[in-house]
Amino acid sequence: MSFKPERAHLRKPKRGVIAERVVPQSVSGRYRRLKWTALIVCLAVYYILPFLRWTRGEGQPDQAVLFDFDRGRLYFFFIEIWPQEVYYLTGLLVLATLVLIWLNAVAGRVWCGYFCPQTVWTDLFLLVERWIEGDRRERLKKQGAPLNARRVMEIGLKHAIWIAIAMGTGGAFVLYFADAPTLLYELVTGEASVLSYAWVGILTSTTYTLAGFAREQVCTWMCPWPRLQGAIWDPEALTVNYRDYRGEPRGSVKKTAELRAKGEPAGDCVDCMQCVTVCPIGIDIREGPNFACINCGLCVDACDSVMTKLDRPRGLIDYESWTNIQRGHRKEEPKRRIIRPKTVGLGLSIIALAGVMGVSLSLRGDDKLTVIHDRNPVAVTLSDGRTRNGYTVRLYNKSGEMRSFEIDMTGLPKATLEVVEDDAVVQVEPDATREIRVLVSAKADGRHPVVFTATDTKTGNSIIAEDMFMSNDGGR
């Protein structure tokens, strides 16, 4: 099928083709080496990170990265996130989204092609499959062949290794939620909790299914990211594209030589289909931009190797912007515009958000005060004519030692403050929170802003929280 420029848009893959099992062929080249490097780095980070140590002080966990449900904490090296600081996680998700959109504006779905967990584990499973069953041609022959003892052994060994990798994936994941060396020992010896084994089983089954069987179906139909490509696709992004103005019309080496000898047009593409057979998604990039393309560059390696053997220029398929493909049709010089308003704006947004989060984390203290006004009743009228408001005061002690706080309130003249069922000095355990009831009484009408202050009796440092004092009339 020849390339038709009028059909060049961000097309969806054909369902009939994608529904068939894709059996990609191995390929070598610079992008394949880059993918192997990304795979090794990603797997190393995933499996090693839970075992890294970080000293936080006496009584604190020393695991560098830990989701501690018992304490209600998220530890990431020197950062400690409390449940009340979930907005940092929200900010992190927004930041990750901005980075993905920025990457898409620069190089399309390059995240999907190199760093996505589905891609990494699929590549690992394919490596095992090729090692046991052979490359594409051998695997295709074996798919329809009758079973024999050797074939049964191959299938059994492949699935056994796949399950072992999947179990390692699930086992490594649960290590992020408890002390890794201890939990690993418990998992191996059968002493771990039922919940731990349940999560290992769930992640084992999902990894085994998605990387072993679903593969390209996940990247094409299950993942929401390709669905957004139609809305955020950027013609200036460096995505994998076919230079049809150079490759068309296609033909064999012999036919091309004959046409060129006659002075007739002939393209560089020999229609060898190598770009299709190596594609892990099973698409033909020569048909134009496709939202299923994960920008892995394996078709670039395949095409470059063919062009090199035929002594023709490399780059028939390459990382190129669609705008430059159109310029090629007009015989204009290509222009690379990685730095443009869109990428600069997204980049500045990423830097600004990261900067705000970084400054906020660096300036936050190891204590905090929050005040919640009673809802029902909002105010109570006392026998002496005064109005009383009730508040729930919560003190956070994020340090590793016991702390004492004196509670005070300002902003309302001649008001009295009473700490219910507690002394004037409130004790808060290390790395803990404490709630106390506070009653404020005053002769006042309407609404009045008040400021609660908690002063550390040892250091003299104060933390504040604002709220309102309301009369019965003002609370309506």
UniProtKB/TrEMBL annotation:
Pfam families: Fer4_18, Fer4_5, FixG_C. PANTHER family: FERREDOXIN-TYPE PROTEIN NAPH. NCBIfam families: ccoG_rdxA_fixG. InterPro entries: 4Fe4S_Fe-S-bd, 4Fe4S_Fe_S_CS, Cyt_c_oxidase_cbb3_FixG, Electron_Trans/Redox, FixG_C, Helical_ferredxn, Ig-like_fold. Signal peptide: none annotated. Keywords: 4Fe-4S, Electron transport, Iron, Iron-sulfur, Membrane, Metal-binding, Transmembrane, Transmembrane helix, Transport. The chain crosses the membrane at residues 34-52, 86-105, 160-177, 197-214, 344-363. It comes from Microvirga vignae. Residues 259-288, 289-313 form the 4Fe-4S ferredoxin-type domain. This is (Fe-S)-binding protein. One of its GO terms (molecular function) is metal ion binding. GO terms for cellular component: plasma membrane. PROSITE patterns: 4FE4S_FER_1, 4FE4S_FER_2. The keyword Lipid metabolism does not apply. The keyword Nucleotidyltransferase does not apply.
